[in-house]
Amino acid sequence: MFENTLQFYGVDWLAMLLTFIAIWKIGNKEKSGFVLMIVGNVCWMVLGVQTSSLAMFLANLIFMLLNLRAIIKWNEEKV
Question: What is the pTM of this model?
Answer without folding.
Answer: 0.89
